Amino acid sequence: MEPDAGPQPVYALLSSPRASLDMTMYELEDATAESDLAADAARGVKVRVVLDQTLEASRNQAAYRYLTAHGVSVHWGPAGFHAVHEKAFVIDGATAVIMSMNLTIRYYSDTRDLVVVDPAPADVAAVEATFDADFAGGAGDAGAPPSPGADLIWSPGSEAAMVDLIKGAHRRVILESEEMSDSPVIDALAAAAQRGVDVTVVMTYDSEWSSAFSRLRDAGAHVRTYAASAPLYIHAKAIVIDGASAFVGSENLSFDSLNRDRELGLVTTQAGLVGGVASVLNADAAGATPYRG
After folding, report:
1. What pTM does this model have?
2. What is the CA radius of gyration of the chain?
3. CB-based contact 268:274 (threshold 8 Å)
4. Of 57, 63, 191, 198, whose CB neighbour count within 10 A is largest?
5. 270-289, pLDDT tens digit by residue?
6. Interhelix angle for 183-194 vs 210-219, to 10°?
7. Are 139 and 117 in contact (CB under 8 A)?
8. CB 130 within 8 A of CB 154
9. Could you tell me if 192 and 253 lie in one domain?
10. Which residues span the domain enclosing 259?
11. What are the start-end ranges of the H helices in 70-158?
């Protein structure tokens, strides 16, 4: 959980591969992370990286140059996506690390983000297969359809899965997102609140989402926000359903993120993980202010 844990656990994972590391990253501006990848390559690890080129090429350019100069195979993400917004990597073909956080040092100290380590073989194989397709896709290809895995949610095409998660709630939904503009998701949250589900939305306030906030508040949801100047910025993309399942990933609740970007998230029923995510979201909700509109 970030910013609580700091980047050190991620750095340790980046330094751990023995044979291979494959990464897809929306923003990479972290000299330590880049040095870890270069050190992996220097000791014989096969390191491949896909970076976003459609929205973040200028910020990613320095990392692209540095990693290429240090033995890392770096490709720009397929240009057919609105953005390659995924933040994930696979270690030795055996462990997938699925994140909401970018590897960008300026965000670490004040940004709420979540990282999940997933050893499930079907998930790892799916993440690796999709990475291979995107890595090979080049600048003129939108990339191949992703492998589904056992419990993964991929974009493009994740809107229906996110709506189904919300529709499956019986008692409570609590979520964090950086963006809130996708009409089917907003409709599903409002409908859940209207049928008696305790719906809580925790976000950093932006006037761009005010109509969604008002709609949800009027439907009976609890909308709680942090000011843009607050010491905590909500960047996490997470949903807990009935305290029994949790989604963590890179998908924001916006049309582009769900339907046009390359994104990756995980749904888990592992009690310890669900409980940990719920605890963070509940604490953030307690620290936020009710949205008045």
Report:
1. 0.95
2. 18
3. yes
4. 63
5. 999 999 999 999 999 999 99
6. 20
7. no
8. yes
9. yes
10. 154-290
11. 121-137
